[in-house]
# Entry
Amino acid sequence: MWKSRLRVRLGILCPLVLLLAASAPLPQTETALVQLMEDVGAEPAFYMMHHGSRTTSAYGRAEVPQMMSRLAKDMDLGPVQSISVGDGLRWNASGYWTRNLRVELNVMNDKPQSNFVKPYISVRVEGRGLPDHRLSQARKRLVHVLRLHGIEPRTHFSVQGMVHSAEGISKKKIVDQVLTQLGAHEVESMKSSHTVSVSAYTPLFTGGLKTKGGRMNLQAAVKTSDDHRIILTLGTPIITIEY
# Structure
């Protein structure tokens, strides 16, 4: 019976995903992943939008902290802190854009002895519960600030929650249900006694990453927590939160 329900949902979801950008408050991929969480009986508890990339332009060694300060100011974040990490230097600042959206900015110079470097920039926008239109507004704000500084946005989205109706259903079956509803095929996988993690490709999402197994733009992971709860994590193109 659950297979017949999946076929019905897939028939509904495929055309719906194509219209989400115009009809929903969240971007297409975020909306599809949140809807999938609910379809498999999971309640979203935590989500994160993440940007990570090196700058395309090189900066003088002394210019990196100045660039960090300008970014933090334009993102309305708190004081910048400098931290020594291994052989490199990292600058960190954080703050809240809304009551539920925490933003953390990190700029890393992993070649502090070089005169000119291309630092790595990481921005995390984190929230709890069910994402709403404020996440879409945060995305627009993040994209605007990054482009203002000549940085091309490269965002990933991940959402995580507990599966409430998982009794008698294997972790692999939950992952298979996610792939089926998105018309995705498996690219790579990792399975253990506690976790099933699959990288996949769906034609319903744009972009992606190339791996040894092929092109992927979706990750799904199901694990058993220490207190025996079933936790589902979805991400596009990859999961960028701990699972």
User: Anything to note?
Assistant: Confidence is low (pLDDT under 50) at residues 1-25. The chain has two domains: 29-46+162-242, 57-151.
